[in-house]
Design brief:
- This protein folds into three domains: about 130 residues, Sandwich (Immunoglobulin-like), CATH 2.60.40; about 90 residues, Immunoglobulins (Immunoglobulin-like); about 325 residues, Methylamine Dehydrogenase, Chain H, CATH 2.130.10.10.
- A hairpin with a 5-residue loop joins strand 34 and strand 35.
- Strands 2, 4, 5, 8, 9 and 10 form a six-stranded mixed sheet that branches. Strands 12, 14, 15, 18, 19 and 20 form a six-stranded mixed sheet that branches.
- The protein is mostly beta strands.
- The protein has one helix and 49 strands.
């Protein structure tokens, strides 16, 4: 009897221990067990998370929400048990293997509670979807589309369509670290190391989308250049021996520079003087002082972060024409965007029109060291809008600044002959978005190119006060951006960036009124024109062609004749 009691007692104790252990183990610490005994009732599924996956995906954890779950509940996938973890009475997780999702369609998920009072839950469907087919990408443009040889590492923006999160930019067939902009137009940004632009040549840029589908895009080309890119302004020295071009550079990624040329006095043909010299970001305007000893370049700076806004200063070698940097003077406000620079006829003062960017638009005033050419700031004065272009009257008594929208006018200033300080005497109305101004050599007339109204505003100049009086507008081409008057005062010329040509005019010596004498073609997006001191030749910078058009001037008619182009 004693032995039999012991035999009966031990299994019961063991059963109690197992039951207790199963309950503890089921609290999220491992797979549920299925003990003998009873369960309270049949389970019910309310929802699944996730509810779907993609064919061929990785193993994952399936969460089942519902009611009447117990520690011994088992999740079944298409009727087969899967390793199950019990969290609480309304929450189970099950491990679904990669082999469970090798065919598209629907899997049936149920929960089974064992025991006489248990059973199988309602069924919930889980979708196994066909993977999305990646499209073939397309490149529309690169920004920048060029880079200076030996430049620094940079970020290349690739615009186009059919980009996905896994798209990769390839440089000459090799992957580069790539991210996809999640806001705005489809754009990929790739990190390009300095080693990729260490030598001249071109780089084939493509975008690759991985399978399924996907593939390689069309090819876009980025050029590594040693010369100037995006020429904005041209100036001829007072001797007529040299010409200089301010090159904006490859958008904002790289600083601009200045191309230097020797002028053939007989033919007017330009010959490059070595490699361009460095300027700074967005080199936008160049001028030479009346002595021919110094040159200055207005650099608008890195517009989106307010930096590197300054004026580059150079000495000019009187024999070779080569420029030597003597440094740069920062703009009074780093966000001011210096856009245009001019020197007064005495060579003692310089003025810079600050387009504004993120700062109030102003005109900066400087004195010039006659020995070194260095500029010293003497302050700023307010302009009448977005100051785009500045020029000084031949008498040195007045300065004029054209202001684009919201101004659409010309600010008029008197110049203090001793200090160089400007004093405003008001504004004169112009056309829509005036872009440039020129005064004829006699100082009697002024002309403003208006880019949005496709015309030229004409004025007489009061010799005593400097005030401008309108004598009406005349039509130009599309988007006129620059205006120049020849040294004889007989002819005026306007570059038209939209129509890729130059408008030519005769000037009435009495009234100053312009009369059209036709147009002549330029290259792509002409931005600036300059005329040599003898009035024999004209030079036009072409922003999108990266070159300079050279013309001869008919002394009798004013007509231009193309004599060729030269790269910047």
């Amino acid at each position: 009897m004693t032995t039999l009691g012991i035999l009966k007692f031990v299994p019961i104790g063991m059963l109690i221990a197992v039951a207790i252990g199963a309950s503890i183990c089921g609290c999220g610490s491992g797979p549920s067990t299925v003990p003998s005994g009873t369960n309270p009732t049949i389970p019910a599924i309310a929802s699944l998370s996730p509810t779907s996956t993609t064919l061929g995906g990785a193993a994952f954890s399936l969460t089942v929400f519902g009611s009447n779950f117990v520690s011994s509940s088992v999740v079944r996938w298409n009727g087969s048990d899967r390793p199950t973890f019990f969290v609480d009475g309304g929450w189970l997780t099950a491990q679904i293997s990669a082999s469970d999702i090798v065919a598209t369609g629907t899997a049936t998920v149920t929960v089974f509670n064992p025991g006489s009072r248990g059973g199988t839950s309602n069924a919930s469907n889980f979708a196994i979807n066909t993977p999305a087919i990646n499209p073939t990408p397309t490149i529309n443009s690169l920004d920048p589309s060029c880079a200076p040889v030996g430049g620094l590492a940079f970020t290349l923006a690739v615009s186009g369509s059919n980009f996905v999160a896994s798209s990769v930019v390839r440089w000459k067939g090799s992957d580069r670290p790539t991210t996809l902009d999640v806001i705005g137009p489809p754009t990929l940004r790739a990190q390009i190391p300095a080693s990729d632009i260490a030598a001249t040549g071109t780089a084939a840029v493509t975008v690759f989308n991985p399978a399924p589908g996907g593939g390689s895009s069309n090819t876009a080309t980025l050029t590594m250049v040693t010369g100037g890119v995006s020429p904005q302004s041209v100036a001829v020295d007072p001797t007529g021996k040299f010409a200089y071009v301010a090159n904006e550079g490859c958008v904002e990624e790289f600083a601009g520079n200045v191309s230097m040329y020797k002028i053939d006095p007989t033919t007017g043909v330009l010959t490059s003087i070595g490699s361009p010299v460095a300027a700074d970001f967005y080199a936008h305007s160049v001028t030479v002082d009346p002595s021919g000893k110094f040159a200055y370049v207005a650099n608008a700076g890195v517009l989106d972060i307010c930096g590197r806004a300054n004026v580059s200063m150079y000495t000019i070698n009187a024999t070779t024409g080569a420029l030597t940097s003597i440094g740069a003077i920062d703009a009074v406000n780093s966000c001011s965007s210096p856009w245009s620079v001019a020197v007064d006829p005495s060579g003692r003062f310089a003025y810079v029109a600050n387009e504004g960017g993120f700062a109030p638009t102003t005109v900066s005033m400087y004195t010039i060291n006659p020995t070194t050419g260095a500029l010293t700031s003497i302050g700023t004065i307010a302009a009448g809008g977005r100051a785009i272009s500045v020029t000084v009257h031949p008498s040195g008594k007045f300065a004029y600044v054209v202001n684009a929208s919201p101004g659409d006018n010309v600010s008029v200033y008197t110049i203090n002959a001793t200090t160089g300080a400007l004093t405003s005497i008001g504004t004169a109305g112009a056309g829509s978005s005036p872009a440039a101004i020129a005064i004829d050599p006699s100082g009697k007339f002024a002309y403003v190119a208006n880019s949005n109204s496709n015309g030229v505003s004409m004025y007489t100049v009061d010799a005593v006060t400097g005030a401008l009086t309108s004598i009406g507008p005349i039509a130009a081409g599309t988007d006129p951006t620059s205006v120049a008057v020849d040294p004889s005062g007989k002819f005026a010329y306007v570059t038209n960036s939209g129509s890729n040509d130059v408008s030519m005019y005769a000037i009435n010596a009495t009234t100053g009124a312009l009369t059209s004498i036709g147009t002549i073609g330029a290259e792509l997006f002409p931005t600036s024109i300059a005329i040599d001191p003898l009035g024999k030749f004209a030079y036009v910078t072409n922003q999108n062609s990266n070159n300079v058009s050279m013309y001869s001037i008919d002394a009798a008619t004013g007509n231009l004749t193309l004599i060729g182009t030269i790269g910047t």
